[in-house]
């Protein structure tokens, strides 16, 4: 069962990951992770919010900038993940 919220490099991949999660499609989610399109952020990962699609709805996407020791990356996740 897929029970974690993915963070993805493009909004398209986040939408695919969401569909895989809805269908409990571990193979589809595995493909996105193996190809480096999505991953699961670790607790405590530092980030800034860049853009929120619709802040009143936690099912909508959010664009974030993630900070790591290797640098920064702009990624997409679900707004509810940040709440």
Instruction: Give a count of the beta strands, DSSP E runs of length 2 or more.
Output: 5
What is the number of helical segments per DSSP (H or I, 4+ residues)? 3
Write down the Rg.
Answer: 12 Å
* Sheet with most strands: strand arrangement: 3-4-5
The portion of residues forming beta strands comes to 25-35%
Percent in helix: 25-40%
Q: Give the uncertain stretches in residue-range form.
A: none
Largest sheet: 3 strands, antiparallel
Q: What is the average of the pLDDT values? A: 86
Element order, helices and strands?
EHHEEEEH
* Count of individual domains: 1
**N-C termini distance:** 22 Å
Describe the global form.
globular
The computed structural class is alpha+beta
Structural notes for this entry:
The chain is an alpha+beta fold. It has one domain (7-82). The chain has three helices and five strands. The protein has a three-stranded antiparallel β-sheet with strand order 3-4-5. A two-stranded antiparallel ribbon has the order 1-2. The longest helix is centred in the first third of the chain and has 12 residues, at 11-22. The two termini are 22 Å apart. The model has no long low-confidence stretch (mean pLDDT 86).
Provide a brief overview of the structure.
The protein has 83 residues and is of the alpha+beta class. It has one domain (7-82).
Keywords:
83 residues; single chain; globular; 5 strands; 3-stranded antiparallel beta sheet; alpha+beta; 3 helices
């Amino acid at each position: 069962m897929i029970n974690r919220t993915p963070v993805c490099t493009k909004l398209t991949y986040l939408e695919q990951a969401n569909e895989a999660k809805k269908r409990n499609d571990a193979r589809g989610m595995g493909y996105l992770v193996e190809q480096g399109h999505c991953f699961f952020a670790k607790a405590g990962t530092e980030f800034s919010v860049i853009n929120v699609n619709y802040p009143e709805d936690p099912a909508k996407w959010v664009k974030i900038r993630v900070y790591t020791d290797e640098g920064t990356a702009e990624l997409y996740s679900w707004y509810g993940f940040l709440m």
